[in-house]
Structure formats: structure tokens, C-alpha cells
Task: structure prediction
Amino acid sequence: MSVSLLGSRSTRLFILLTAFFVGNAVVAEFVGVKIFALEETLGLPPFGWNLFGQQGSLNFTAGVLIWPIVFILTDVINEYFGRRGVRLISYAAIGMISYGFLFAYASIHLAPADFWVTVNAERGVPDMQAAYSNVFGQGLWTIGGSITAFFVGQVIDVNVFHYIRKATGERWIWLRATASTAVSQLIDSFVVLYIAFVLGPQQWPISLFLAVGTVNYCYKMVAAVGLSPLLYLSRRWIESFLGPAEAARLKAEAAA
Result:
């Protein structure tokens, strides 16, 4: 890459957004193995939802803390770099997630050092190899479901975003961002659960699948709406960084 190309503010912006997007997506996948209790974390009494004949509390994967940021980044990149930009970063994220899981599985099968297996026995971890395998050895059904849902959700998000943009022009960025997220995450929330837990070895009943999917979707939408101010802050910073003329040029090309 030539120095002149790196000197372009739009190129540097795309590299920065891509790095942050891919980094967030990979981290979300790996921390997502932990399930946390939202009410207990916030010091609140159990919510106790009752849907489709199923009951439960607000338990989510730790990845939901990061995915809303990925949604915001998708809309920002969509706004300035269009469909091609979102497709490129999505392919990059899927590639790096797959790359990360490949080496996680390879590392699990390395023979552990004898001292390392029991190094934390006094801290309540009698077998570090087993703990390591449980944390990083997510099932193939879960990985496949997550990657498929992520890709399908991104494709839907970018198309809904541009459909609304054509109808509204530069107005109401909150509308196209929220609506595209609402549709894409409706698909994402259910696809990953269906592949991982209905088709997979756990064989969830449909009622449980619908209940958990609905709770997850509602959380994602609340988080997405709550983070909407970040979209405007990001846009303001980008307009300042690029300058009005360059920002207008990118948005015009993205909308074409």
C-alpha cells in the first residue's frame, strides 16, 4: 500500500473501523461462552419471564455486552462505505473468528505440562486442562450457528438500511439504524439458537427455543436503542475527521 493511499483520511478511517469491528466480533465470540445473570449483576430481584409455557430469569451470554457495539459499527460503516464496505468487514470478521476457533481447538489438543494442570488447584481449579477445554472448546454446532447467524444478519442489516435510506435521504439516521438492527437481529437471535440448540445435540423443544430467542431479541433491541447516541457521536467525529466535503462524497457513493 502506497504512502499516498495511507495518507487518505477515508482509507485510514476504514482501516480503523474495520480493526475495531473485527476485534469486537472476535472478542464477543470468545467471551460469549460465559452465561451471566443480569438481575443479580445489577443487584435486582429475579425478573421471572414466562413465555411459550417456559419460565426463566434474564440470563445472557457475556457476548451481548459487545454485540450492540458491532451493530452500531455496522451502521456507521454502512453510512460511509456502503454495501461493499459492510460485506468486506463481515468477511474479515468471519475469517478471523474461524481462524481464532481453529487455533483454540489446536491449542486444546496440545499436551499440557504436568505442573500447569494443577497449578491453580489451591484456588479451586483442580484441572486447568479441563477448564481451558471447557472455556475455549465451544461446540461446532454453536460456532456454526453463530457464524451463520452473524453473516445472515449482516446481509439483512445492510439491505434494510439502504432501503430506508433511499426513502428518507439524509434524514432520520436513527430510524434506518434502529429498523435495520431490529430486522437483522430478529433473524440473528433465532438462527443461532436454532442451529446450535434445536438442530444440535441438545435438541431443545420449540417452546424453549422461541422463549429464549424472544428474551435475547428484546435485550438486544433495548441495548441497540440505548446506544443510539453513540451513532450520532460517531457520525459527528467522522464528519470532523474527514471534513464536510469528503464526508459528503463518501455518503453519496455509499448510497449509490
Q: What stands out?
A: The first strand starts at residue 35 and ends at 37.
